[in-house]
Specification:
This protein is of the alpha/beta class. The chain has two domains: 135 residues, 2-Layer Sandwich (Nucleotidyltransferase, domain 5), CATH 3.30.420; 137 residues, ATPase, nucleotide binding domain (Nucleotidyltransferase, domain 5, 2-Layer Sandwich), CATH 3.30.420. Helix content is 41%, strand content 18%. It is built from ten helices and nine strands. It has a five-stranded mixed beta sheet with strand order 3-2-1-4-5. A four-stranded mixed beta sheet has the order 8-7-6-9. A hairpin with a 4-residue loop joins strand 6 and strand 7. Helix 3 crosses helix 9, helix 4 runs parallel beside helix 6 and helix 5 crosses helix 7. It is elongated, with a radius of gyration of 21 Å. The two termini are 28 Å apart.
Length: 304
């Protein structure tokens, strides 16, 4: 964590006031990186999403530049930055690092204040979270196996020569989903090929793939006792086929954010706002603009 922003409030900052500042959350995930920028009232002004890649620091720098550009702001307008996700330690300009589970719970609750359960399926893992009054109270994760994650869907799509969007659309045509018995990604791939060879209808095979993933994630979530309202997030929540399968597996409707990828970044931004307000109330809020500017824009000496 960085604590260089702790200090006395300057005359300039006192005149400007917290209502004139903005707050940013940067979420460096295993496959995708996100940034969300909110104003002092908590309204999201901009967000960006893009692949993480191998160089986390370079990606963090670029995504921060992008969200500032989209919002039409300068770095000096940002009062506090929180980083989260797998690569949160590689965001050199962050004022604070907070775990992705805490940020995710806060982000979901900011969109759906009454949420009690959140299910997140990303490219490499699946998570079930219990939330009360906007705070994380318990969680379980599956990050040891690709089954029950976005990678499982990617392998199935590659096997069938389909895009993920095509796969979701076709699956919704199913009247009789095929049971995919294998939860191991490799064996499931072989089973899908076998089902095709047996002449099974493609929509039924695809619906079976979604149900196999949903059943595994629902089993994880039930260990926490699923309580509605339930919010579904992560990249996999963009798939209508997956939403339908999860609703069947859980036996209840799901709430899906307009952009289900950014809840972690949004929560980080909200927590950045909370922390800055707390420091200002204690008379300890201070910006170190020069250090932050160098950390963002001078890293590596290459902006390409």
């Amino acid at each position: 964590m960085l604590d260089h922003c702790i200090g006395k409030v300057t005359d300039t900052e006192m005149k400007k006031g917290i209502s004139d500042f903005f707050f940013t959350g940067v979420d460096i995930g295993s496959t995708m990186s996100k940034a969300a920028l909110i104003d002092a009232g908590g309204t999201m002004r901009a967000y960006v999403v893009g692949p993480t890649g191998a160089e986390h620091r370079r990606r963090a720098n670029r995504i921060m530049e992008d969200v500032l550009r989209q919002a039409g702001l300068m770095l000096d307008d940002v009062a506090w930055i929180v980083s989260t996700g797998y690569g949160r330690v590689n965001v050199p300009f962050a004022d604070k690092q907070i775990t992705e589970l805490t940020c995710h719970a806060r982000g979901v609750a900011s969109l759906f204040p009454d949420v009690r359960t959140a299910i997140d399926i990303g490219g490499q893992d699946a998570k079930a979270l219990k939330i009360k009054d906007g705070r994380l109270t318990d969680f379980l994760t599956n990050d040891k196996c690709a089954a029950g994650t976005g990678r499982f869907l990617e392998v199935a799509a590659e096997t069938l020569g389909l895009s993920l969007d095509e796969m979701a659309s076709i699956s919704l045509q199913s009247d009789n989903p095929v049971k995919i018995s294998n939860i191991c990604t490799i064996f499931a791939q072989q089973e899908i090929i076998g089902r095709i060879s047996d002449g099974q209808a493609l929509p039924d095979i695809l619906a079976g793939v979604y149900i196999a993933i949903a059943s595994r994630v629902a089993k994880l979530a039930r260990q926490l006792k699923v309580e509605p309202p339930v919010v579904f997030t992560g990249g996999v929540a963009k798939s209508a086929g997956m939403v339908k399968a999860m609703e069947i597996a859980l036996g209840m409707p799901l709430l899906v954010p307009p952009e289900p990828l950014i809840t972690g970044a949004l929560g980080a931004a909200a927590l950045a706002r909370d922390h800055a307000l707390e420091l200002m109330q204690r008379g300890e809020f201070k910006l170190h603009k020069k250090q932050l500017a160098e950390a963002i824009f001078d890293y590596g000496g290459d902006k390409n």
